[in-house]
Specification:
Layout: H1 2-33, H2 41-74
Helix pairs in contact: 1-2
Length: 76
């Protein structure tokens, strides 16, 4: 039963990070559309933030998928 609770927690983290990634992506899009220079400190900071969040999401997704596989195999 503990594995299922862990899986739900991992899914929640994945959902939260997904929202944060999309907000960061939208922020980048808004900066581009408003004409902010690509080399500006603001743009570079936004890009770095997006990249960090995307890496966190990718790691969380891999952990979730591995955990889901364990839970699915344990319920067979």
């Amino acid at each position: 039963m503990e594995n299922k609770a862990d899986l739900i927690q991992a899914a929640s983290l994945l959902f939260q990070l997904g929202n944060e990634v999309e907000n960061a992506r939208q922020n980048l899009k808004d900066l581009v559309e408003s004409g902010v220079a690509y080399e500006s400190e603001e743009m570079l900071f936004a890009l770095h933030s997006f990249q960090q969040l995307e890496c966190q999401w990718n790691k969380a997704e891999q952990e979730y998928l591995a955990m889901r596989e364990i839970v699915m195999n344990s319920t067979k």
